[in-house]
Target: Rhodanese domain-containing protein
Amino acid sequence: MNTSMGRSSHFVKRNAIRVLNSKDGCGFRRGCSYRWKSITDGRSAAFLSGVDRFHGPHPYVRSSLVKHPLFASNNATPSSTASYHATANQQIVARRNEINRQKREARQKALEKDRERNLKLRHLFSEEVQQRHANDGDTGIGNDVPPMFAVKVVTCRTLRAELKMNGREKRGRMFVERPTFFGENTMKSIDDEEDANNYACMSVKALKQTIHEFFRRLKKSTYVLSASLPVLDQEGNVLMYDDDDSEDEDRQMLGMWPLDTDEDVQNAFFEAEQFFLHHQKQQQHDEMSAMKRPTLIIHVTKDPNAPLPPPPPPYLENLPDPNASPTMTMLSFYAFPPNDGIVDPNSTADQLKRLWRPFRALGRVYVANEGVNAQMAVPTNVLPNFLKCCTVPSDQGGELSHVLGSYMENGINIDPIPVPMDEFRQNPAFRNLHIRVRSQIVADGFDKPLDWQSAGYDMPPLEWHAKLKEARDKARAVQSKGDTSSADPLPIVFDCRNGYETQVGKFELAEPLQTENFRDSWDVLRERLKDTPKDTPIMTYCTGGIRCVKVNAYLTQELEFTNVSRLAGGIIGYDRTLNEQAPTEEAMFKGVNYVFDGRMGRRITDDQLGTCFTCGSKTHLITNCKNENCHKRMVQCENCRDSFFGTCSEGCKTRVVNSRAAPDSESNANQVQKSKGPDIQYTNLGDYSSGHSSPTPPLLYEIELNTAAFMPTGAHMVSGAMQGRFLTMLASMTREGRILEIGTFTGYATACFLEGAAIAGKLSGFQRIGTRDEGPYVLSLERDRRALGVAAAHLKVMSEHGMNDQAAGHAAELRATDSGVGDFDAESVTVEYNNMASCELLRVSDALATLEEMASGSSSTSAAPFDIAFVDADKTRLTEYVDALVSGNNLLKKGGLIVVDNVLWKGLVLDASGVVDDSDSSDDEYSPEAGQSSLKNERDILRKNRRARKLANKMHRFNSAVVQDDRVEVLMMPIRDGLSLIRKL
Ligand SMILES: C[S@@+](CC[C@H](N)C(=O)[O-])C[C@H]1O[C@@H](n2cnc3c(N)ncnc32)[C@H](O)[C@@H]1O
Model:
């Protein structure tokens, strides 16, 4: 960029305040990289796709900039955090690569060995070698012996069952090279490595090694080998049989002899050879043997002297098969072991993994020095065993009593209604069991830990229920009759969950702390309680109880309150206890209990406390945006969820639609992330069209979101995805890619034109980057300094990073960090894109005046004529703009195209009457009135707006005039708010 952009003074400050006050935005963390999102305002979201520009912003939703609290501290800048994560990620990736490399090498070695063995076998099997052996007659007894032994290996039933060997592993055949010393009728002691290689299988060790290559599972067991000669059928074929667990004596009776020493092994092969030669003789005699080579049967049986495996711990006795469970049970628990806590969290995590493996449980478990925090799904048929495993004391075989056991406050919170397996598979709360070691099980932000053992009274759910009911009745009495007779003050009830959790459900009388993160609670509590007497009863609750341990420790130890209690087992415990012990009682908790697993929430009562993020109606549903790049958590009603395909905005919806419609274009750098899920059922043609158009580059979505954040009242003015793609297509079809834009705003259409101009330049074979005088070049005129500042930042990102996901990330950072965007205080700025096209943003006081100057050739701004002029500003003077563009050839080439936006003027051109009041000529879409009028969602309301009617009349007059102008040819297209293509003849 060839300009210095001024720091935004007024602008930055204004948004900084918005950040601090923001209640409706949220920064969030996904995986290990921080992602920044802003909640766009409803109206801009509705306008983002460009499908519907008529819908106004929803009054319930305010746009805001969002700042992640992590970055709020002075020393944690986004870049330092990002670099920290980058380093951590690099280490993980390097380690993974190293492991993969080693695996590859080992595999390569094994393949190489296999190949060598196969080659050798093939050679030995070759007719030539067989023939040579036959001719050599090297057995010393004048008969020919093939160079290979066939060895049939049979494993016993006990081993098969114990090692869960499949059919193919039960038995098999391998070929062994006949050792040369066999011809000399001698034994060989095989002790060095070379010998072992040359005489594979001629020692116990070598034989076992070869067997392991075919029967890999045997490695895990202790077994003994014995051998027998083959049994032949009447035609001389070797019979295979299933082995059983014969005792020693039986084995001898069956003609099996043990292979305990190397000598035994060699003798066995020797016997096999003799047996074969004997049969060969017989074959010559009666021509019946089908045995082609010496054959030995090797029996693999469990070693009777192997030590017995230790008995299973009591909790694994009679363990049913967890895979056969028809349901899953959701549960949660936490423990703060006293004294030194968990001394070695890593080994505890390993221990938990090992002990819980047989249960096939899923979930998310955190282990830290301070304790364990678990949310899990356990197959219901093994639940009793699992509970035993976690709770049995050490003297009864329990291995977890030092971390869980009696330290699990309120035991294990078990959801009373198990989830059927089908349902669980469709919408899994967890997919794996993740046991992670963390510095804390609940991040609190304290410099040093408090005493978690001393955290107020742990109030049983029914007592809590009664207390709350009593307080509610008292509060009602005070309200209705002004009865203040009671001496006891009402308790303060704190909902200690984060703001988003309380949106869909809470206890009556509760005051939500409204934090974005748990660690923000301390300031909120200190401020709220600063004038409260220390003996005021304070009751706290959260989802499962763990957060209240910390809150109450803070209230008692730091703020010195004396009458503090917390709901034992949290809302989950309350729900279960009430269901089990007082099912007829009306629950004091209303709505949905938000939970941190795939279910998102458990409905406790039918009350709908939430407000739909999209339409503002009441709902109890909470969800995450289905656009995986966004994933914003939001309250959204069923209707909006269906019409937005589970996404939060038109922008995200289009991304999801595009990504599902383009399953094969993954290699495209601009490809948006592919979403999983069922195929989309399109409900309107706009969605269908988006779904069947090439994906919009990710950068453009971020430009829309930035516009909503930086220029909320004008966010509806951006061209949007559908129109933007159309403009790119038009620009790419020109010969030179020379585009003039009137009305840059935040640079959405400018970016589309620049993209198209670069394509045009490439297709036409331009060798140099375009300039004012020739080649692919976009000139965009704008008078608003703030809009230009935002546009300049966007085009800089595009110039440096392109339009892909990475570029989108940089653009998203602009609104997240509020940096790099300021009022434009230069005259112009030029950026280059793709080594092909350049783009100049020019600040003007009036675009029409600048155009007229350029047309006359007198201006310093003059440029070679353009292929396309996009008129997207100053809608009351369209006739003058078209005039300036078509008279003379300085501005627009002969045959060039003028594109005029908004020619249908929100549909009101239909109503346009013959009475046109010209008195108001100060049109500007980006005016306060325009912002206000677009707040309203219905055309009828617009009809009542005098100014809107006047503008519609003007537009109608322009449309009627231009179609009669014989210097041009017009095609009006009902895309979005109407686009007229006006070709200069
Ligand atoms: C509809 S917006 C442009 C939107 C943009 N082309 C896009 O697609 O994202 C109109 C812009 O024109 C600018 N504008 C209006 N009148 C103007 C004038 N006389 N001279 C220069 N700019 C003007 C406004 O400040 C506003 O930013």
Notes: Residues 1-82, 138-142, 661-678, 914-938 have pLDDT under 50 and may be disordered. The longest strand covers residues 892-901.
